[in-house]
Known about the structure:
mainly alpha; seven-stranded mixed sheet; 31 helices; 59% helix
Amino acid sequence: MVINHLNHSWLEGGFLGVDIFFVISGYVITASINGRLNQPIGLFLGEFYRRRVQRLAPALITCIAITGLLTCLFVTDPSSSLITGATALFGVSNIYLLQESTNYFGLDASLNTFTQTWSLGIEEQFYLIFPAVAWWLMARDQNKARRGFRPIFLAVLTGLIVVSLYSFIKACLTDPNAAYFLTKTRLWELLAGAVLFELRRNRGSQDQDHQSNPIAILPLALLIIPMGLTADNAIVTIPVTVIATACLLWALEQPSWVRTMLMLSPLRQLGLISYSLYLWHWSVLCLARWTVGTEGWWLPVLILLMLGLAIASHRWIETPLRQRAWAKKPRGTFLRGGALSTGLAGLMVWLALGGGGQRLHAGEATLTKSQALKEQTVDGTAISRSACHISKTRSLTKDNFSKKARECTARSAPPESSSHPQQPTIFVAGDSHASALIPLEDALHQEGFGVAHMSMDGCIFPPLTHGHSNPKCSRFQQQWSTWILNHGRPNDIILISSYWLSHLGENIGRTRNNILGPDGKTITIGTEKTKSFLRDINQFGALAQARGMDVVVVVAGPRFLDRDRCLPEWFRPKNSIKPCITDFKKQKQYAKKMNQVIAKGLDNNIFFIDPNAFFCEGRCDLDKARYALFDSDHPSPKSARSLKNELLRLAKNPDH
């Protein structure tokens, strides 16, 4: 797993290390429960959770506290990472990370300094219920508990495995993020280890245990094969890995050269520090991505730092605090561990939501997503990003859409006299780049204009002739298009903005292929995507013109991929951001060429605004990108408002 995180191309299937761990964990926990069936359940559970707290909490709390501080110092917007760390202290970071994965503006998991804690969340949620249920089922028949299978226990485990495995397969096909992060889709892996223990318990005589196992190499080979496959094949590689791990654990009960190899001192030592290494390797790698980079001579330094921190954590934190009694009774242990966790979590949430984490940033002042999103609201109206920008996973009924559209419309005030015409309404449409224009809408509304806003994540406007790969997008834009044409008045303006470099681009980084062709398949060629869009926008423009409305398209603006970790800072070596600078220049050329094609293809009745002439005061460089954008591509509130005068010019000039 560490190798995979260092560089995916070195071992693409290294992520399967977590699945191996789940099977082993299920086996070990079941063995532990089986050895304590003679205890009353209250005593058993108290001691079980005391051991778990003393085993997991010290290293986790230490890692989160230190990493959290460094995150504030070196991460531009630490909010998401800090909340992840806070939720990890209570074993629910996997749920928060799942929410982040579906949040359009969520932090990329590879840049979240606490992403590794998701698997601890699954394990801790497993601990909440399984020990009590397993103890009760095992203890039902003490005679069978000593020898032979326990049919009820096995039947319950098998049934849960079937249900969980079905959830996993279904989620892999429909929602891969849920398959990855949710306990219900991972439970079968832990239970596979439990079943293995039950089948292996008391099986075979002591003589058989000393017989050499010549075929132990087979499950090891089966375990290695999936390591060369990518995460896209998880629906196959994870089950194969679980089966191979279970077979290998069974085989290792007997002597073999595989067992001898795995018992070598270096590997055993690595196993002893594995928990601390799992925690610290990600902290080191992720913070390096935000600072010095992970290439060149920094790589061996980072590896040594990971090992050093893991060894130190195991020697001076894990081991002494696990062996030393925290209190006379388990309740005292829970109170102390809970108090530390609650205090640290509260501090991290305060730093995240109160802005304290951003104020601790050791680099130059930079506009963050959190700051920019707070300004996406039109004062004095119900229009805001949270109310009027729709998730791509949501579908609105006709009645709900009409209600939402009325809520997200603020008409201009009636004229004071007949000599003063009523100001037009600006209808804004598109994807998240349209929602980034809400500060512009606020400025226009203060000038007396009406504004109406409806947008959807990743959803291009106008509705496409052959549809969008997301049916919810097609339905939404058709609803908004119809609403605009039915409720617009002469001289009203339809302002369209989208992530054109992504929607219409090809081989220029982070492009998407969502536009469907006549055959119902997605179009992948950039020129064909652009041609399809121009045809649809021109058709929509004709419909708008027939109603006396004008269409204005905000074409592609500047793009700075990985902006937050590519901006020049004192803690970032120049060599580490050279690729970013080169790509930034290329992206400006891509935008220039695309805008020329769009401008040439638009009918004369459709107008366009080139934002590159207004953002960054006409010339974008790395330093200006700190405030011209609030992430890799979305215009900042200041940039959005910089389009006001140009739009006013178009609105006040009938001939444009």
